[in-house]
Amino acid sequence: MQIVRTVIWVLLLVALMVFSYANWQPISVRIWDNLLIDTVLPAIVVVSFVIGFLPMWLYHRAGKWQLKRRIAALESAARTAAATPIVQPVVDEEPTPLSADSDTRDTTPGMPPI
Q: What residues contact residue 69 under an 8 Å CB cut-off, 6+ apart?
């Protein structure tokens, strides 16, 4: 995957170089009424690209950082849960036998006797 990313960046750089060579002309950019900047067209293109790319890249990195933290917390919780044995309580009760004279009717509260 790293090679694909590198190839894409190299292609973008080559396209920028070809564009810069073909459009190397001085231009004037009016920022405000009294602020006029003389520069070349490729500089404007690069600055525009960076202005558009940087916020989205920072947003992506922040999301990736948050997900890495969440994954690390879940992995830590899973390791802790796997290391902690579950102990079942020991019950040593013997069942009480029913006697012949005991009442075996259903005595649920609120229900009339059968």
A: none
As a whole number of angstroms, the distance between CA 68 and CA 1 comes to 19
- For each of the chain's 114 residues, which pLDDT tens digit applies? 899 999 999 999 999 899 999 989 898 888 888 888 899 989 988 899 899 999 999 999 999 999 999 999 999 988 888 777 777 777 777 777 666 555 556 566 666 666
- Between the alpha carbon of residue 36 and those of residues 23, 28, 47, 58, 113, the distances in Å are 20, 7, 16, 30, 99
**Residue 109 DSSP code:** T
Counting every residue written for the chain, the total comes to: 114
In angstroms, the CA 61 to CA 55 distance is 10
Cα–Cα distances (Å) from 113 to 74, 105, 106, 110, in that order, read: 54, 8, 7, 9
Helix intervals (H) in the chain: 2-22, 41-83
Rounded to whole angstroms, the Cα distance separating 86 from 80 reads 12
Measure the CA–CA gap between 44 and 52, rounded to whole angstroms.
Answer: 12
